Amino acid sequence: MSRLLCTHCKFSLTTCLCEDISQLKNSIKVIILQHPSEIKVTKNTARLLSLSLTQCEIKVGESESDFTSILDLPIQTTALLYPDKTALLLDDSTTNTSQFSKTLTHLIVLDGTWKKAYKIMQMTPSLNAFQKVSFKEIPKNRYRIRKAPRLDSLSTLEAVAHSLALIESIDPQPLYTMLESLNKKQTQFMPEHVKARYQPI
């Protein structure tokens, strides 16, 4: 039997987050390339970004043929959020990084596990045309309900929130508050000994 879903946020009625969603006005358009395996993941945060940010779009696929629209993006003012040795570090105050950040109009973000994101990169060579950006220091992971294999893993929501804070000086707290609500509502019916595994350290 399928669960009843909220028609707006698409979470189950018992974990509906509509009352927790705040609208944030961002100037840089966030384009999320979402791996198909993430669509039905109940803990996926990309959907929350699309409901919270005024400039956000989700495109689903895993290869070049699925993301042909990125070919129309301005190469000089579009960045790809992806850890790489060639990436400019958004939290580095050097002149090159600062000047580049001020010119950005689009930010591409890959939504999926590390393995799936890597697959998207390999199967979408046109992504290499864009300047990669990343972080020198990874903020503390607030997304406790979905375990990741790497200590420096961030949810899509956290990665975008931190990026916009660095690039546009947007206050990311409303996004983090929404994420904390997701943490609590996804664990509310767990036995106490199980819920304890997902509490802040």
Detailed description of the structure:
The protein is built from 6 helices and 6 strands. It is α/β, with parallel strands linked by helices. The protein has a single domain (24-195), classed as Alpha/beta knot, CATH 3.40.1280. The protein has a 6-stranded parallel β-sheet. It starts with 28 loop residues before the first strand and ends in a 6-residue tail after the last helix.
Which stretches are poorly predicted, pLDDT < 50 over at least 5 residues?
none
Q: Which H/E pattern describes the elements?
A: EHEEEHEHEHHH
Our count of helices gives: 6
Largest sheet: 6 strands, parallel
Oligomer designation: single chain
The fraction of residues assigned to DSSP E strands is 5-15%
CATH T-level fold name: Alpha/beta knot
Percent in helix: 25-40%
Trace the largest sheet across and list its strands. Answer: 2-1-5-3-6-4
How far apart the termini lie comes to 36 Å
Number of separate strands: 6
Number of domains: 1
CATH C-level category: Alpha Beta
Rg result: 17 Å
Average of per-residue pLDDT values:
86
The CATH architecture: 3-Layer(aba) Sandwich
Gross morphology is globular
Report the structural category.
Answer: alpha/beta
Write out key terms for the chains shown.
201 residues, alpha/beta, Alpha/beta knot, 6-stranded parallel β-sheet, tRNA-uridine aminocarboxypropyltransferase activity, DTWD2/TAPT, tRNA-uridine aminocarboxypropyltransferase
